[in-house]
């Protein structure tokens, strides 16, 4: 990466972290201070290793200070002998490795000793995979050419080198970072320091050599900043952590390209003290606060979701585990009773518990489910089925035949046999559901052949709008469950791009629901999650560039609380902190329906 003055100005305008460059290598600074020198760096797959050397009593000794020299810690024993073995075993056949020898004693006598010792290691000096670079005390630049072809030098100046032969002997340019900034690696560089540092990098690159700072802050924020700014060798005392972090950024940094147009509700019916007619419950599977935050920040800093005023938090623990699964959480919300993980609509003893669709149907409601999962998935099936284990898919599918539902839209499933026996008229196009006059309707989401993300993220919104239209045309009030299921799937996969796109897809559906609630003025909307997935954090990003850097701590669910948003009549009842099963109790209390089973 090269910087012109115009580029620097642009970077200053848009911010430091405007994307991620892969043009970097990792330099294991003072590698000999690692608990396992050389091998630890090689295992981390660094590209450069630094060793400080003193020439004392005819030996090349490895140490940071003269008084720290130990008898057996020589350049040969710590680095040259094992490096010879590495080459013999062909362990770095597809990699390049730079061995930087930082000379701490007289340049001429020490480098002569290095050259003499290296005569015993032709496998190293003749290798196309290994380069020897002398740093620290060095001869004059014009004297570089006096040394063997396999010896290169670390140039520590920004002054031009006009002699091409001397320039050819320069392997890299290195400077102290502290000369240009006192940044400690937390937060970000100031605009002034960023300008200074960027100008140094640009000037160093005018020599057409790789560049390194030493005396750098050693943190994730610093590593990313230096890589983004075009530093070729990232200096670190934590080689494994540095390589792991930087190499993972390509999978953890996403620039969003699809957006949810933010809808601002009228709030005319919000928090009014009256019993609502309809209930729409929206569950973003695995959609914790950080997932929501990632979508908000990638969507210009706002979503339709963030316009709402009635906000609470629910605790998600199941009856038998600190960390719930979707079945335990779905059943708690659907039935008002905490149960064991994997249970679908059954209590801790395996007995069936009445769920919302059943209770509300008995009280004059039409009910429906829309999910981007299969209809037999753990969350949606908790609202119509009664089985002791979520893996009992065939039995769950049979429960659909006896369900009180008037509508379902889901991903296709091969486990639902003879769906027509359940009385659903199946539609081949979800956009036709809204105009249907059939008594019971079902439809499958079908994979689009279109590769445009915009089309795919709109599917749930289209299905939601049609499901609402279908149910609203009936004379009865309705309850509708809408699930954005794939936020959870991408969380399990630690795929931040998928998480953001599915969260935005969910918000597009929220927009349709809020528009209906405003037009209807008598619909209560509850938006929540069953649990958080992935242990997601978002340490850095750039709102202007719709960029998110994600970090996941697990491929599984976590036990953190998840938000609840509500809108419409009595939405204020969902504020506060409470258990997930209380959503059921609050809903029935608002609807003045007895909770006695």
UniProtKB/TrEMBL annotation:
Cofactor binding summary note: Binds 1 Mg(2+) ion.
GO BP, one annotated term: lipid metabolic process
Keywords: Magnesium, Metal-binding, Phosphoprotein, Zinc
Location of the active site: 326 (phosphoserine intermediate)
Co-factor requirement: Mg(2+); Zn(2+)
Binding site for Zn(2+): 285, 488, 492, 530-531
Entry protein name: Alkaline phosphatase
Lineage, top ranks: Bacteria, Pseudomonadati, Bacteroidota, Flavobacteriia, Flavobacteriales
Pfam (any one): GDPD_2
Residues bound to Mg(2+): 285, 379, 483
The organism's place on the tree of life at top rank: Bacteria
Sample GO molecular function, one term: metal ion binding
CDD domains for this protein: ALP (cd16012), PI-PLCc_GDPD_SF_unchar3 (cd08577)
UniProt record similarity statement: Belongs to the alkaline phosphatase family.
Coiled coil: none
Species, as recorded: Maribacter ulvicola
């Amino acid at each position: 990466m090269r910087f012109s003055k115009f580029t620097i100005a642009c970077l200053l305008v848009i911010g430091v972290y405007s994307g991620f460059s892969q043009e970097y290598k990792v330099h294991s600074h003072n590698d000999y201070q690692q608990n396992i020198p050389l091998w630890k760096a090689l295992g981390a797959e660094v590209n450069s290793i630094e060793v400080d050397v003193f020439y004392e009593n005819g030996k090349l000794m490895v140490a940071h200070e003269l008084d720290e020299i130990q008898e057996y810690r020589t350049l040969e024993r710590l680095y040259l002998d094992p490096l010879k073995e590495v080459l013999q075993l062909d362990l770095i056949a597809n990699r390049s490795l730079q061995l930087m020898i930082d000379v701490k004693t007289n340049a001429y006598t020490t480098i002569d000793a290095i050259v003499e010792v290296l005569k015993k290691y032709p496998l190293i000096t003749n290798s196309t995979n290994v380069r020897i670079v002398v740093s620290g005390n060095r001869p004059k630049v014009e004297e570089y050419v006096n040394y063997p072809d396999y010896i290169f030098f670390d140039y520590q100046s920004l002054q031009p080198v006009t002699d091409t032969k001397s320039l050819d002997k320069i392997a890299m340019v290195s400077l102290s970072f502290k000369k240009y900034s006192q940044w400690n690696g937390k937060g970000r560089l100031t605009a002034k320091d960023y300008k200074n540092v960027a100008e140094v990098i640009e000037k160093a690159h005018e020599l057409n050599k790789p560049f390194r700072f030493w005396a750098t802050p050693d943190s994730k924020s610093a590593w990313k900043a230096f890589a983004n700014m075009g530093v070729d060798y990232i200096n670190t005392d934590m080689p494994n952590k540095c390589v792991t972090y930087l190499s993972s950024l390509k999978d953890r940094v996403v620039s969003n390209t699809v957006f949810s147009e933010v809808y601002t509700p009228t709030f005319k019916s919000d928090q009014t003290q009256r019993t609502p007619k309809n209930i729409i419950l929206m569950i973003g599977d695995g959609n914790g606060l950080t997932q929501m935050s990632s979508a908000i920040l990638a969507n210009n800093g706002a979503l339709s979701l963030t316009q709402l005023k009635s906000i609470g938090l629910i605790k998600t623990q199941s009856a038998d585990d600190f960390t719930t699964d979707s079945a335990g959480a779905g059943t708690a919300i659907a039935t008002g009773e905490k149960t064991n993980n994997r249970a679908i609509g059954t209590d801790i003893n395996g007995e069936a518990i009445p769920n919302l669709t059943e209770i509300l149907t008995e009280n004059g409601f039409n009910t429906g489910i829309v999910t981007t999962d299969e209809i037999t998935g753990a969350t949606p099936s908790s609202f119509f089925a009664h089985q002791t284990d979520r893996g009992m898919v065939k039995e769950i599918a049979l429960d659909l035949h006896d369900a009180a539902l008037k509508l379902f839209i889901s991903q296709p499933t091969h486990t639902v046999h003879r769906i027509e026996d359940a009385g659903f008229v199946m539609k081949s196009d979800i956009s036709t559901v809204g105009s249907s006059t059939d008594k019971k309707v079902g439809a499958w989401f079908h994979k689009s052949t279109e590769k445009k993300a915009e089309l795919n993220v709109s599917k749930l919104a289209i299905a939601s709008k049609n499901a609402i239209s279908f149910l609203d045309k009936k004379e009865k009030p309705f309850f509708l469950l809408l699930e954005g299921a794939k936020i959870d799937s991408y969380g399990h996969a630690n795929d931040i791009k998928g998480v953001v796109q599915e969260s935005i897809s969910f918000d597009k559906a929220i927009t349709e629901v809020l528009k209906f609630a405003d037009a209807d003025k008598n619909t209560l909307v509850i938006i929540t999650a069953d649990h958080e997935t992935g242990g997601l954090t978002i340490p850095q990003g750039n709102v202007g560039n719709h960029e998110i850097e994600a970090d996941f701590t697990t491929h599984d669910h976590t036990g953190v609380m998840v938000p609840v948003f509500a809108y419409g009549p009595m939405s204020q009842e969902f504020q506060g902190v409470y258990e997930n099963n209380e959503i059921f109790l609050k809903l029935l209390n608002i609807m003045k329906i007895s909770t006695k089973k």
